[in-house]
């Protein structure tokens, strides 16, 4: 599981880099040949026996007392959601990317609200030719009375205005992202209005910034800016659990098997929310 505190991560990584650099300097000085009285460099013996494994860095084991207490304090409904997403394995595990869920809504309605009228799909076999660094593609799937949409980069999440539009007419929509830079957005809208949306929800200043209806789940992944670095739950998994709680729609990896995909820019709605 990921552990809390971006600053803490940066310090750990910096110490690792500095340690590696120091080792490199020591090895370089020790490996250099020393000149002999005749002026010819002679080979020196290594300081450690041949075959001795180099020391490896082991990250510190973090205290999970608070996490266990927060898990134990969840309601039955929240505990079931957390258990599903935190412990998903194999085919049930959510891939990295952007996950959008909304209900009640049809796929046709979701496409029009997110992509506009007349959006043209690509077949799955066309994706390699059409998707590049500046473009990604969404697949859509009907799940009960709701919709799941997914793209694989985690950087093509919809701007707030589209998340809100997706929830118009009494619907609820939610977005959760996970990408290679570990940026985890969670946001949701109800009846055309944004309720909550944070680019990195786990690092808000206070849990009071998060709506009460999802706060207990968010607590599992929240990094207290004033507290020590402790074990926390996976940011993306908790975002998925909160998305299902507010929409009633369970994200499913089955959306990855869609035959039709819709290209969007990366990023989507450049800087309009920042």
UniProtKB/TrEMBL annotation:
Keywords: Signal. The keyword Signal applies. It comes from the Bacteria. Residues 25-61 are annotated as: Disordered. Residues 1-22 form the signal peptide. The keyword Signal applies. Residues 25-55 have a biased composition (Low complexity). This is Uncharacterized protein. It comes from Nocardioides glacieisoli.
